[in-house]
Design a protein that fits this description.
With 283 residues, this protein is α/β, with parallel strands linked by helices. It has 13 helices and 5 strands. The protein has 2 domains: 76 residues, Orthogonal Bundle (Arc Repressor Mutant, subunit A); 164 residues, Glucose-6-phosphate isomerase like protein, domain 1 (Rossmann fold), CATH 3.40.50. α2 packs across α5 and α8 packs across α12. InterPro entries: Homeodomain-like_sf, HTH_RpiR, RpiR-like, RpiR-like_SIS, SIS_dom, SIS_dom_sf, WH-like_DNA-bd_sf. This is HTH rpiR-type domain-containing protein. Pfam families: HTH_6, SIS.
């Protein structure tokens, strides 16, 4: 992940660590020349605070931090790291709007990639490949992304169930078996519905893939696999859920591509054959 994005996404910082992060974000061009003592003096923190932060960034030392900053500053096409919640201002013209939205999407996708290790995705794909039945439990606007995933998978012959209202979701969970994979989508996991669904699914020994954010209380639940949203957005105080929506669509598209690629030739042939049946005049 871009170091600046990583600094912005750090949580559970002490007051002094937060002050250091703010200083690095404000003056990266100065930090690259500082010794530990100089950085401590300019940011008004202790040297031990500097190395605690470096550890949280998974860097090997101050030189590694400075190198990462140099790489960031030297990027020819580096986009400005903008406020994900309020990426535009009232003064922006149409060109600025489109460029800033692209930056939001670029940062979101990179953050989503960094939040989900290859091993996590591989374990998830194994669950999807082995499942006889797949149910997706989502709410609000996330349902539309679940339905798009359902459409993609049905095009290659894999049926996906997306129950919409509370009753149908509870009924689907109650009818699930160990042959089912349940994909439970809940960004913050604070509502009672996701917890209730998880409880029913566990009782039926169904396989569970949880898609949630890094601060979600649902992460304490025992599930078979977990994927994480990019956790860059405020849940309420924002213009719109640009980042959350993009992150979820990207995760569903990754699941689809990995499933497709598992038996590429077969899936491609199936899709083309059935399109031909629907549209016999196509060549």
């Amino acid at each position: 992940m871009n170091l600046i994005l990583k600094l912005k996404n750090l949580d559970k910082l002490t007051t002094s660590e937060k002050a250091l992060v703010d200083y690095i974000l404000d003056f990266p061009e100065k930090v690259i020349y500082f010794s530990p003592k100089e950085l401590a003096e300019h940011s008004f923190v202790s040297i031990s605070t500097i190395y605690r932060l470096i550890n949280k960034l998974d860097l090997d030392g101050l030189n590694a931090l400075k190198l990462a900053l140099v790489n960031y500053l030297n990027e020819d096409n580096a986009e400005k790291i903008i406020d994900i919640d309020f990426p535009i201002s009232a003064e922006d013209n149409q060109y600025a709007l489109t460029k800033k939205l692209k930056t939001v999407y670029d940062q979101t996708i990179q953050s989503t990639i960094d939040a989900n290790h290859v091993e996590m995705m591989a374990a998830t794909i194994t669950l999807l490949n082995k499942a006889s039945f797949v149910d997706v439990y989502a709410s609000s606007a996330n349902i539309y992304f679940a339905q798009n995933f359902q459409f993609q998978m049905q095009e290659i012959g894999k049926r996906i169930n997306v129950p919409i209202d509370d009753y149908m979701q509870n009924l689907s969970a109650a009818n699930s078996t160990p042959d089912h994979l349940a994909i439970v989508v809940s960004y913050e996991g604070r509502g009672s519905s996701a917890k209730k669904i998880l409880k029913i699914l566990k009782k039926n020994n169904s396989k569970i893939l949880l898609i949630t954010s890094k601060n979600s209380p649902l992460l304490t639940e025992e599930v078979d696999s977990t994927l994480l949203f990019a956790s860059m957005e405020n849940h309420y105080n924002k213009i719109s859920s640009f980042s959350t929506r993009m992150s979820l669509m990207y995760l569903f598209d990754c699941l689809y591509l990995a499933f497709f690629n598992h038996d590429y030739e077969k899936n491609l042939a199936y899709k083309l054959e059935h399109y031909q049946k629907m549209n016999p005049d196509l060549r």
